[in-house]
Amino acid sequence: MSGAKGGGRVGIIGIGQSNFRSRRDDASYPDLVREAVVPAMLDAKLDFDAIDAVVYSLSPDSIVGIGNAERLGVDAVGGRNKRFLRINTGGATGISSVTAAYYHIASGVCDVVLTAGADKVGECGDSQTVLNKIWDPTYERALPLGTINMLAMSAVRYMQRYGMTEEDMAYVTVKNRRQASLNPRAHLRRVVTIDEVLESRIISWPLRLMNCCPQSSGGAAMVLASERFIRDNNRDAVWITGVACRAETYWMGDRMGTNPTAEHAEAYALGRSFEQSYRMAGITDPANQVHIAELYAPFSNTEFHAIDAARLVAKSGESVKRLRDGEFELGGRLPVNPSGGTLCTNAIAVTAMARVAETALQVWGRAGAHQVDGARVGIASGNGGDHQIFGTMVIEA
Amino acid sequence: MELLGRQEVWNITYDHALGETASYFFTQIRDNGKIFGRRCAKTNKVLVPPRAFSDETLLPTTEWVEVGPGGRIEAFTFVYEQFNNLPEPPYAFGYVLLDGADTALGGYFKGVDLTNPREAAEKLAIGTRVVTKFAEQRKGDVLDFWFEAG
Amino acid sequence: MAYRVRPAVVGCAIRPAITARNRSLEEIIYDISQAALADAGLTIEDIDGIVVGCNDQFDGRAISVMMASGPTGGVDRDILSTPSSSEHAFILGSLRIASGQFRTQLVVAWSPTEVSSMSEAQRLGADPYFHRALPLDELSAHALQASALNHVWPNAWVFAETVAVKNRRHAAVAWPDPPARPAAGPERWPLTERLTTVPVTGAVAMVLAGEPFVAERDFKHPAWLRGMGWATEAAFLGDRDLTAARALVEAARQAYTEAGITDPTTAFDVVEITDATPYAELIAYDALGLAPRATIAARMAEGWFARGGHLPVNLSGGVITFNPVFCTGMIRIAEIANQVRGRAGLHQLPGAQLGLAHAGSGFAMQYQSAIVLGAAQGDVS
């Protein structure tokens, strides 16, 4: 295959992220994209001429209020007259975009690919209004569905199956807020107590305000390159060794009833996606081979079934006790969401990219105050749609 | 410096074709106060609401099956927060497996006191029997019916 | 070659004009996906991954891929979506095959007409900072491009009329009994009603497979991907030379480099161009290197691009015949795939061996792609 680009493995050579906040009235939407792209390019020590292609990360247009807003972002990513396309898989968009960038290189077509995006969730007023429109207009949109209500129902089923309590959910918030307090890029950084979580107002029972992610504004960007480029140009890199995506049924009611393939309490397709990415990376015992996990969990309860699906515990539901025992906190056996995770920062279009970026920084040893000592193998995930489309990655030093 | 903002509204109307399957479902609700599902011949599962094809087998569904009006609760939540363009809280809604169905149908729960969510959660616990109630005036959508315990 | 594994198109289904309202959008997507699988002689069990091209504003759904996952076969499969354009779904599907990590991909795109005003849906794509207050929809942007071309090339309007007539004549062969004859479109000067077409509902799907799978299943007539290029213009029309299509020049350069094409004026048997307007087709002749602008007058006079000419363009009738706005790009690719597979139907060019598909979309063709497909696999290095 003479002349082919993209030889060998695919590595990450540059990362940029905003300091995520509620509102960014000082910056337009493309300004926020640029804010992440510039540090990613500086980190990769590359000029835009070196970029073969751009994968643009943007979930529903209606959140930023601009139709096909990726078109407006072309200059922010230096995309003029370059290969450029956009990905949208809802909340999974960020990891799906890194995945698409990965295939640009793995195909042999490109050597260096930039993926970037941003969100200004705070500007849409009420994301649940927009997110009601993800349900089909035929049967379900007339119901007061939103992502919070949807996952409150997952919590109710998880409680019934495994005995998870409101207090168990509060532990997740307390852990992630404590970790976010160490991460200057996180949005909600105030440390909270169990009692504060349990006294915060109910949004959709059993979810209280502090069980819910914020509406964040900010951008994220990553530069990926072929192993050959990395070697020839003497770059430092971490490697994407496993990558996968799986979907499950759109119909929430099909995840209940008689023997559903995908149970709504769990994250069936997330588990299937992890199976595939572990197989690719040669990981057979994730609970012992993985050192750090950034698992997309926008509500406290969903961190439990994400840990279950990633098989960081022997069987579903075991995550609850082990989390309360401190196994998944910074300093514990296998830290989950040391950045504070989606629960503390959710700029929807790039949230799942932040999971990949944070995992990469960890195995690189560059995570800063929330660094997991000795992390060499990390995993990241993203969830999109009505808990329907899942992306997973294994990243290694 | 002075930072400006601008309010923009998206206001677009769509006229979605419902297709034959959903059209039958909604006319049965509107005209007869009955709920129908569609059977997948391969898995024998009755899909409610009815789908023209099963997303698991990718085969067309083959048979109309009347389901309900009784059923059991599969999931619920109580909403205490006001969201833009959604109903005034508090309200209860969720999913019910109607008798004869294999998948759950979404709808409101009515007749539940939501003053204390934990007490309400016990009244609507998963597995609780409910019955489907229909509005007197029906227009052919999922708000024509709701579920009540007992 | 550029790819680890060479992709091929092994199944196509094109429905450029769906008029009946007896199927919901989900059901239309189910129908087109099943039709492409049937054309390939495969079932969903053979499909490793899916890429859909869909647009939330046209579909009236946020995160449209959610609704599409079931009908395309996405349950328990790997599915991604490219809302930037339909052609990008083909491109990403091809990259996935080329990586060698997938045997097959199903790529699907559609464009409904359920929105009360296509123009209003498109105007949401104008940024709220500088342009939203202007009456800027896609047709207006095409009109601005047309008037820019008329300025630098004073006879362009004459050739635009000729292109429209040519494509409508092609349609008479391709669709003697068409599903519908859409009315002429609205006017935006200099785009007269003869140069535009009312949008219709349409859908398209293709099955892609890598070389090992093509060999294993012994597909007799795959359309091999020989070269693929894609690029974007800047967002603001004011930043662009609307007459030049630089992104298309770049896309063609990428595709021709991969395909080893040195003289595009003679390389192809058949071409499909996204004639969002006939002016777009004129710009593409030049940008794709099919005919330098100075030669186009002479070429058109001798019927070079017409049926029976040296290089027939848009034997399908093109977008001016059927304009399912969002999926016109992927339809052009599927048309060329069918031509080199010998399955183009009434408008088959006998013996077509190498074809070029141009896909363009967005305001004044912001996104540009060039796809080269061949009956032969090409170099195997």
Descriptive notes:
The complex is a heterotrimer of chains A (397), B (150) and C (381). Chain A has 14 helices and eleven strands. Chain A is α/β, with parallel strands linked by helices and 397 residues long. The mean pLDDT of chain A is 96. A five-stranded antiparallel β-sheet of chain B has the order 6-5-4-7-8, covered by helices on one side. In chain B, a hairpin with a 6-residue loop joins strand 5 and strand 6 (105-109). Chain C is an alpha/beta fold and 381 residues long. Chain C has two domains: 7-116 and 203-221, Peroxisomal Thiolase, Chain A, domain 1 (3-Layer(aba) Sandwich), CATH 3.40.47; 134-196 and 224-374, 3-Layer(aba) Sandwich (Peroxisomal Thiolase, Chain A, domain 1), CATH 3.40.47. In chain C, helix 1 (25-40) crosses helix 3 (65-72), helix 4 crosses helix 14 and helix 7 packs across helix 11 (278-287). Chains A and B meet through helix 4, helix 5 and strand 5 of A and strand 4, strand 5, strand 6 and helix 2 of B. Strand 5 (202-205) of chain A pairs antiparallel with strand 4 (70-79) of chain B.
